[in-house]
Amino acid sequence: MVFPIAFVLRPLACLVLLAGLLLAGCRASASDALDQWVWRGSGAKESFKGSNYEGVFYEKGTLVVVGNGFNILLRKDGDPAWRTIDANTQRPLYGVATANGTYYAVGARGTILSSRGGEAWTARNSTVSVPLFAITYTDSVFVAVGDGGTVVTSKVGGQWSIHPTGIIDPLYGVGFFNGNFVSVGANGIILFSPDASYWLPQNSGTKAALHGITTGKKQFVVVGDNGVILTSPDGMLWTPRTSGTTKTLNGIAFGQGTFVAAGAEGTILTSPDGITWQARNSGVTHFLKSVAFAHDTFVVVGWNGAILESGSLSAGK
Q1: Contact 70/87 with Cβ under 8 angstroms?
Q2: What whole-number distance in Å separates Cα of residue 241 and Cα of residue 27?
Q3: Do the beta carbons of residue 302 and residue 291 sit within 8 Å?
Q4: pLDDT tier at 12 (50, 70, 90 boundaries)?
Q5: Rounded-to-integer distance, Cα 163 and Cα 180, Å
Q6: Confidence (pTM)
């Protein structure tokens, strides 16, 4: 029996259309993961109770969360439960970073703690007594920044040295890319340094407080008050970007080709390039403070016990 060509092609066209729809669904799933934020806090999100989490960091299968609860939270890949670790301090902690399996947390009154693996924490002498808000590590040096334009560095994490910056405003964030350091802070302050020893002010073009900094797609990306977002390829020439919000943005991270920024009233924004930004539905109205990329999800922490985790960015691949 000979079938008309149209009779044969019509089912094939249907199969092609169905395959296209399925492929589109798979492609959309990774993007949709950034609208699928799951509450991971220990208490109910409706209660607005719990610790104010200030910083989150991920490396080699372990998430570390610090805040004002005088405890540190740990979570391993594959384990949905958080472990509560005694921070060995009564001072709030604001930032955390790691180097070769050793974690360093910074906080109020110059607090610096270190831990091999995150289980037991030891106080270090930072040589300063002002709050330290952020810390980062490169292949050769730790850099911590804080109130009064404070910058302290350490090559081994044990002995810390102060480096004058010539400013008195607080510094809230610090990042490193392509051999250069950038620190950001109040009143639109941006400082640039090739070695973390001497720091040069740069023109940010804004007076808004700048809170968070990350690197990705061969650039620095900075976020701050009033929805301010700035990008720079070198840490010296800065370009404002349209965020689509006037809410305060506190934290930002980069992973798997995507930037995620978080801030006041549950605000979460994402971008593929640091230039164009899209608002996401976080499902909360908490004050969000810090973001980390963890394997194939983003984790956002904030005040009143807020811990959120995105869907898997590997879904559908």
Answers
A1: yes
A2: 27
A3: no
A4: very low
A5: 16
A6: 0.90
